[in-house]
Structures are given as C-alpha cells and as structure tokens.
Amino acid sequence: MTDAHDSAAPPPPEPRRFLEGKRGLVIGIANEDSIAYGCARALQSHGAELAVSYLNAKAEPHVRAIAERLGCTLVLPLDITVPGQSEALFGAIAAAWGRLDFVIHAVAFAPARDLHGRVVDCSADGFQLAMRVSCYSLIEVARLAEPLMTGGAIVTMTFYGADKVVPQYGVMGPVKAALQGVVRSLAFELAPRGIRVHAVSAGPVRTRAASGIPDFEGLLADARARTPLGRLVVPDDVGALTAFLVSDGAAALTGDTVFVDGGRHVVA
Which residues are catalytic? Predict the structure, then answer.
C-alpha cells in the first residue's frame, strides 16, 4: 500500500540564486509597473543585494516602500540633472560597500512638447535635455561606477525605435540610437577592466512613463499583431534577461543590444 504522502508531487525547486554575493545599483525605479522594478525584483530573487535610487521627494515614499520589499540596504536620491547628486550617490555606495558588481540604468526623459511632435520640429533645449537624461547619463554613471568595479556589468534600456522609425516615438528614436552607440563605445573602453556593457531592447511595456507616448495603445496593438510569440512583454521578462546579463553566465558577452520583444524585431 502506497502512503498518500509518498505519492504527492515534490515541491517545485527553489529558483537558482546565481547572483548570490553580488551587489548592484538599480537606477530608475518609479513604481511597481516600471521596467526598473521588474529588473530589481529579478536581481533580488537570484540573491543580489541592491541599492536603488529615487528621483525626488515626491517619488521617495513610493521607492522606499518598494526598496523595503526588496530588502535594499541603500536608498539614495538621484536626479541626473542636479549637479553633484551622481557623485554623492556613488560616494555613498563606495563608503557602504566599497565595490559594485553591476549597474542597471533605466532612465529616460523628453519634454512632452518635443516627444509628441515631429523630430524636425524638436526644440534645441528639448533635444539637449532628452540626450542629457537618456543618453549622457549612462556615460556619467559608467565613469563613476568604473573605480568601484572589477569586472561586472552595466546594462541600460533601449527600444526598437532606435533602429527603425516608430512614428509615435518621436525624438526618443534618435536619442536611443545614440544610447546604443554609447553602449558599444563603453563596452570597448571598459573591457580591459572586465566590465561588460549592454543595452536591453524591450518591446513596448505598459508602464506609467510609456503612457506619455502619443497613441501608445495603438503602439501596443501593433506590437501584439506583429510579434511572433503573440504577446506583449512585461517587466518580469526584461528582469529575467537583465539578471542573466549581469551574471557570470554572460561573462563572454559585451557591447550587444539584446532584444526581449517576443521576436518583434525580426518582422518587417
């Protein structure tokens, strides 16, 4: 006679914690729907210890609540446009940890008037601000992170609109194209220190920030219709890929734009 307990299905295995012992910074968490939060959740689930940033006093309570759930030990202010804040953030990490194993850069912004209009009508000030926040900030982050890193990885976020014209994406298309160029240069320049650099190109994700893109619902519908896997990407998909890219399993990869879009980028 078989005991009922013996015949029960075994419990599912615990997730493999392949980031155990690693410490990293996640920049760009705004709320539970953000891609940065999907990344942070995946990184933490695989054993990484995280520091996270918040944009300003208005965002701080929301980010601190998320950080508490993730067990983050460092929650620090970072507005890329405020002189000295980037240096202060990395100084605090250096004092607390003395090192970094990875950085996730998930920051982008363009003024609404420039994002919603034609690229040819974009203002000089709007273009410069979009480039400052969305592109140059990666250079700044890499420069400040470099002294704290012996190996490891830096990962930023891009979109299909960097490679092909997506009418709703406006000025962010050229800005993200520049970001991908920066990724390649940083990957080359930081390789002697063993630091790998990647861009993750996610399909359109239903986030609060993305809702500012004109006709975003139409963009989602088009992506769903043209995606071979027939579904939209969610932040957890981006997080799973990001966790792999910062892991030792990706030690021979650098300088890539890696797509997580259900195959949308292979369809004309």
Answer: 169, 176
